[in-house]
């Protein structure tokens, strides 16, 4: 007996985890290259300023006074220290390593699920419920360890039902026990026709003759 029979619900959840893993892998991959680019704006000035300090402290002695050289090297060293402090405060290096590792783990999870779901049911090994718990645990661990997302994404595991708007048109009709339609459009038409009939009758009627008829 094939243990993967009647496991469409498990396969659906596994496929949702796979799609989320693919999206998150690409997302963290983009973050990795973004932080690598940001890192260059901190590393290159540090390299340039450090080289200038090392040359100026020795090569400018025949052109400038030692006090001026000391002031220049002091200011440049201050700028290098500020740049390095900002880089450490923003934890650029830690973010690069974290995004790279997270992207690889999400990718490994997605291809493992792809291999499992694309195999024929007869060729799959393992208990379906145990595999579901194992893959879902891996996914939850990655979500907890990874950085928060700066934007929303089409999460397949956290779908919200669409709310019907207050002024949305309803195509459904309700019927009263008498068999008459309770559609608001039909009711509004009936009210308009009733108002027009009453207004026409009020205009055509003569109040004096009406009073005479009441007396008679």
Structural class estimated from helices and strands: mainly alpha
What is the alpha-carbon Rg in Å? 38 Å
Helices, by number, come to 6
**Helix residue percentage:** over 70%
The separation of the N and C termini measures 95 Å
Number of strands: 0
The main β sheet shows up as: none
What letter string, H or E per element, gives the SSE order? HHHHHH
The parts where pLDDT drops under 50 for at least 5 residues are 170-184, 197-216
Roughly what fraction of the amino acids lie in strands?
Answer: under 5%
Morphology: rod-shaped
Quickly count the domains.
2
Provide mean pLDDT, rounded: 79
Structure at a glance:
The protein is mainly alpha-helical. Helix content is 70%, strand content 0%. It folds into two domains: 8-145, no CATH class; 188-215.
Could you please describe the fold and organization of this structure?
It is a single chain. The chain is rod-shaped, with a radius of gyration of 38 Å. The chain folds into two domains: 8-145, no CATH class; 188-215. The relative contact order is 0.12. The chain has 216 residues and is mostly helical. It is 70% helix and 0% strand. It is built from six helices and no strands.
